[in-house]
Amino acid sequence: MRKLLAAALCLAATATGCGASVESTADTRSTEAVTLTNCGQKVTYKTVPQRVVTNDVGITELMFALGLENRMAGFAMPDDKGDLTDVPWKDGYQKVKWLSKDQLTKENVLDARADLVFAGWNYGFRDDSGFTPDALKKLGIPSYILTESCRNGRTDTSRGIMPPLDALYTDLTNLGKLFGVEKRATTLIADFKKQTATVHSKAPTKSPTVFLYDSGQDAPFTSGRYAAPDQIISEAGGVNVMHDVNDSWTTVGWETVVRRNPDTIVICDYGDVSAEQKKKFLLSYAPLRDVSAVKHRRIFVLDYVDLVESPRNPSAIARLGAYLRTATQRAGTSS
Predict the structure, then answer these.
(1) Are 146 and 123 in contact (CB under 8 A)?
(2) Superfamily per CATH, domain 2-193
(3) Tens of pLDDT along 192-218?
(4) How far is CA 249 from the centre of its chain?
(5) In the structure, how many helices (H) and strands (E) does the chain have?
(6) Which residues, listed in sequence order, are joined to residue 125 by a DSSP beta bridge?
């Protein structure tokens, strides 16, 4: 299964050559200023970064998918994000230094002599830790914020300013412009859109409802409309039962899950609690016993990196789409 997944992901990354080097045009632009729109703000980068530091797996793999590992000084991520040795960008993991198995800190960044930090709100940037774009700016280090994580002004912490796949394409476009790999970014985006459209065209006539379960027993952590799972679910042919929540990753109440009665539950696999343990909890948690997904044991597992903004999103759409089609067919047969 891992080999098949790697092959599918590599197919998705044909535009990057699966570990391809940076387009030669990038080297000629190292002294030119580039202005981008990031989280609704115009940001000017005086030079093309040479020592980028990233936080978390999805952000790191955006750089790898664009063939930018030779522009990186390192990355930080926990070691609970699955097998990294059998993905299209494994060469990037072998070439770029793993700075920390926790989130980035100012010390990590300074030690790496970083000239750009690519992270996101709750993907490294946090007010409570003091690790923010403003704090880095005071140190003379520019930042780029993951678009999926942009704060939207509805509350102090709510995130998301556009549909999740648009966020992915926005970041690929911006990074392509910043590093002079526009052609690679454009080709990659076109390939992702084609894959997604193919899956969506096969979607069931009646869309099954889906609940994304990340973690939490007292109250579940899940995806609102601005986190990647929302559009992964919809493009796969389903409907996120929390689509009306104007946030990205957020906590809801179990009573809401019960009331919305999802046909399928998708588990986000990462962390100290395994997917099997999460599944066991869901199937044994008394308040959920009459929920359709639990009654019929329609529970599907995707990896963490599939479900955050990353170049693995199209593959996740394809796999979830195949599951939903099969589950829908079985439900129709048994009815």
Answers:
(1) yes
(2) Nitrogenase molybdenum iron protein domain (3.40.50.1980)
(3) 999 999 999 998 889 999 999 999 999
(4) 11
(5) 13, 14
(6) 121
